[in-house]
Amino acid sequence: MRKVALTGDRPTGNLHLGHLAGSLRSRVEMQSSFDQYIMLADVQALTDYFENSRKVVDSILEVIADYLAVGLDPELSTIFIQSQIPELSELTMYYMNLVSLSRLERNPTVKAEIAQKKFGESVPAGFLCYPISQASDITAFKAEIVPVGEDQLPMIELSNEIVRRFNRIYHTNCLKESTAHLSKTTRLVGIDGKAKASKSLNNAIFLSDSAELVAQKVQTMYTDPGHIKISDPGNVEGNVVFAYLDAFHDNEEEISSLKKKYSQGGLGDTVLKSLLNDTLQKLLQPIREKRESLNKKDLLEICYVGTNKAKSVAQKTLYEVKSAIGINFFDKSLNRRN
Amino acid sequence: MRKVALTGDRPTGNLHLGHLAGSLRSRVEMQSSFDQYIMLADVQALTDYFENSRKVVDSILEVIADYLAVGLDPELSTIFIQSQIPELSELTMYYMNLVSLSRLERNPTVKAEIAQKKFGESVPAGFLCYPISQASDITAFKAEIVPVGEDQLPMIELSNEIVRRFNRIYHTNCLKESTAHLSKTTRLVGIDGKAKASKSLNNAIFLSDSAELVAQKVQTMYTDPGHIKISDPGNVEGNVVFAYLDAFHDNEEEISSLKKKYSQGGLGDTVLKSLLNDTLQKLLQPIREKRESLNKKDLLEICYVGTNKAKSVAQKTLYEVKSAIGINFFDKSLNRRN
Question: How many domains does one find in chain B?
Fold first, then answer.
């Protein structure tokens, strides 16, 4: 039997090359060997986008289009929308009793995010508790593998704590611990070279960008400000063009020899950027074409089928959880007769 | 149209005379003029009974038996179990984004309860957030009237804050503010005269107590320790027997003249206790008989019908809430096709 893997995205904008390098490519690989669930985490996104829900809502079909465009196959990967699975909210209610407030406040990732988001004194309860909701997502599907970045390790740790505590208190083994899969790829830097590529910093190349826009963005990419004449030795470290070539050019040796040449002097930014542009255009053209071939109705249908499949799995887990607590008073009849 | 009222109990044990005086009698009155929902708040009870869920589970049918025994009529009052209505959990998830952690920590009732329950450093997130879950209960049924004790006023206030914030952020008026109805009756003191009657202090007379047990408990009631000889003047203030006569004897004048006599001296505790015992036996006998006539299957069926009715109301509210946020992606189809 294939192991269950759970991944997903907070739908707060279209996906970009950072997502492709960071997670999408590995999901495409994983879908043939894992029973992969991919969640559009709209409920989680709303914990800090609650005043901008339009953004979340509008992003959902865009993100699904990105998924399919890069090669995720709904026959192999179950794509679903978090808000359409009430069982996840119910699990969260029961898990919230097993996690103390101080445990949540100690979570280093949440701590850093709270500081960054400038909630001030008004940290929404929903935001502080989102790691509990993540535990619901992970456990509902009995995910064994959760591909994450390093910053998400505390979430998996908390989820496993909840699993152990629940199983111990309610004398059951219905919940399963999961294992974090650290992604191999490092975070892709933004085209400005300042921080990781992100929508909010407006420094990313989106999978849906037109060929012209991609070319323009490559033109403005940060290289080495000290590299003025072609003959000057240039810095490879911190040079965004090389970072992107590393991530997306398929000939490592070629890039290695270009780096050497650039460091010694004699290789101009124009030539380099032209190579990167060719690389990205070749990469993005089929993605863009696939994306344009998708219509809203089909995307909704794909998502509907995936959500229904995910719902029936979550339903089963919730049933086990409520049985362990002892609160399936009408057995399944209430749901059945509806 | 009759106004909607919501009340309920945390099922953590059988109901006693304190409940009868404090809420049950007024619910029986209200059911003919209000559209009354009565919730068995098992999810809320689990926020501090999560390690003792058996107690909650076992109490549910007992409490429903108490309800019916005192005259609550399932044709007039909708009796339902909180945990069987997933919509309440979903509402809580969305409301949690609208309430800050510091707002929750300022709640005086929760603060006092946390101190009393000795959670120490481990206040469960679920416990701190239970007022948000209460707001879900109130708003799901669009309750206009919520009968409460004084200590519950901060909960209604928070619920109304959530209503206003939700309606403002999502440009809707689908949620309704509610009004607290302060109950007229004061809290019934325990038979030991030390604190209010409660199961945990073992100082209550239960609706299900046998006639013998009631008589025994009346015998041990705290009166006035200084009232030794019948001819001694006795204290009416703090005298539990008088508190119970005030609450349950139907002739106010008679009690008033007995109080006078007791204060002046010349009225013995034995006579008084005998009067109270007669009063309580007359009150409790039909309740006990009705209680014994109920079987588990019928109770479950009553509760099943009530829960289904409540569920369809909550479903409608959740649909409006999710529409306002914009996240009814499959319209109602996902639920319909299930």
Answer: 2
Mean pLDDT (whole number) for A215-231: 93
**β-sheet bridge partners, residue B81:** B40
Distance from CA of B322 to the nearest CA of A (A): 9
Are B125 and A133 within 8 A, CB to CB?
no
> Are A27 and A171 in a shared domain?
yes
Task: Tell me the C-alpha distance between A191 and A28, whole Å.
Answer: 25
pTM of the model: 0.94
Residue A106 belongs to some domain of the structure: yes
Mean pLDDT of A296-317: 96
Smallest CA–CA distance, residue B174 to chain A, in Å, is 17
Q: Determine whether the interchain pair A334/B84 forms a contact, defined as Cβ–Cβ distance below 8 Å.
A: yes
Closest partner residue to B51 (CB to CB) among A54, A133, A169 is A169
- Domain boundary among the residues A274, A292, A310 is at A292
DSSP symbols for B10-38: --SS--BHHHIIIIIHHHHHHTTTSEEEE
Task: Find which of B101, B106, B296 to mutate to test the A interface (most A CBs within 10 Å of its CB).
Answer: B101
CATH number of domain containing B55? 3.40.50.620
* Owning domain of residue A218: 211-292
Q: Say yes or no: A216 and A173 in one domain.
A: no
ipTM score assigned to the predicted complex: 0.94
Give the whole-angstrom CA distance, residue B268 versus residue B233: 10
State phi, psi for B68 to the nearest 5 degrees: -65, -35
Q: How close A106 comes to chain B (CA, Å)?
A: 12
Most B CBs within 10 A among A97, A127, A323, hence the mutation to make, goes to: A97
Question: B156 and B61: one domain?
Answer: yes
Q: Compute the count of residue pairs across chains A and B with CB atoms less than 8 Å apart.
A: 175
Domain CATH for A219: 1.10.240.10
Whether residue B217 is found in the same domain as residue B303: no
- Contact criterion met (CB < 8 Å) for A93 and B92: yes
Lowest mean pLDDT among A180-189, B241-250, B297-306: A180-189
**Residue A115 clears pLDDT 70, i.e. is over it:** yes
Is the domain of A141 the same as that of A252? no
Residue A194 lies in a domain: no
Q: In this complex, do A127 and B97 lie within 8 Å of one another by their Cβ atoms?
A: yes
Note the pLDDT of residue A243: 95
Tell me, yes or no, whether A277 and A300 share the same domain. no
